[in-house]
Design a protein that fits this description.
Helix content is 45%, strand content 14%. The protein has helices at 18-32, 44-50, 90-99, 101-111, 123-131, 144-154, 170-181, 190-195, 207-221, 242-249, 269-282, 300-303, 306-312, 325-330, 343-352, 365-375, 391-402, 408-424, 427-441; strands at residues 8-13, 36-42, 62-66, 115-118, 136-140, 200-203, 224-227, 256-260, 285-290, 316-320, 334-339, 356-358, 378-380. It is an enzyme of class 2 (transferase).
Length: 443
Amino acid sequence: MEAKKNTIRLLMVPWLAHGHISPFLELAKKLTNRNFHIYMYSTPVNLSSIKKNVTEKYSQSIELVELHLPSLPNLPPHYHTTNGLPPHLMNTLKTAFEMAAPKFSKILETLNPDLVIYDYNQPWTAQLALSMNIPAVQLLTFSAAVIALGIHMSEDKEEKFPFPEIYLREYEMLSLKKAINESPGKEFPFGEALRRSRNIVLVKTCRDFEGKYMDYLSNLVTKKIVPVGTLVQEATDQDEHEEIMQWLDKKEKSSTVFVSFGSEYFLSNEEILAVAQGLELSKVNFIWVIRFPQGERISIADVVPEVFLERVGKSGKILEEWAPQANILQHPSTGGFVSHCGWSSFMESMKFGVPIIAMPMHIDQPMNARLAEYIGLGVEAVRDENGKLQSEEIAKAIRKVVMEESGEPVRKKARELSEMMNEKGDEEIDGVVEELVSLCGNK
């Protein structure tokens, strides 16, 4: 497949996580009808998971290009993704990704794109593009508030972060520092990758609710921050998920919570028990998707007490590994989202008008949860001082958001934010296109 003449050839290099590849693909789709030809560069296992989303409508404009990582011990090709990756192999995957730089260099020579868009942890991508006089721009799939706080903390500024509503509790700070210290290489690559972005940084956000954080971030990095919108994946074909949809059809409007902690965090047995007890205590209908690391021979029966399933009966449904998240959140019976507050899930809640019961687990999620509470989109289930989940607090937060009068302001705010997002349409994309075209013109 060759790009048409006069189109802008754009090479996208997302990190190997679904929460990164999905927004990159959504941006690619929005650029296809604006004279861009997109090359999406990722591992075969990741490309196979998005192939079905590159429908015939986009097949002439979005080309999937395979990235073959070097062979490393304990990292066979089906582990060339963070989806279901056992946590102890995360740094091995990051190392393999960095080792693929020479292959990326050859791809640049072969495709000769006009522009490269790369992710948060890849300074080498921008460096190699620059060596061939190809402008490279970073697309960050985190909130502007999180990025700004992270940079503020890393620069050891004496003054406090100017937005006290975004903060980390002590146990969250310790967890984050541990994750950063365990990253491969001497320097955490985020700062270097950010510095190498040409003139602008694209951020998956909207000025309407993150304007002040975007402006502060722009001052910190001395680059223009360009919002790209929510980049939420469209719902899939309802017929594929008939059983789940029929189950929801039998529930009353806004009576059910969807429970999911993303594709990269695996609950411990203790956490599963706390969530199960919280759901039972709440007396609210639920659909709960539980995931396990790939290769581990564990099933729901091994971790969820049979007596729990008997007691909740028809008011609860547990799915293993995967659920049609967008379809469930869009369903009229869904009244709350018990979420880890990954940024993609945060955006889906906002787009579909479903309030969040926040149960952040690690990295950026605690800060996203604070933002959800601050803008009125959600309520956080309070943990104990050591960061342990508390069943009673989970139940309390669920009841407030879904059932109680005290939760009406949150429900109302979720509806208002959804209406605002859907009215905007692709407003941000016009600004993105203008910036990208300008960069290509200044090569």
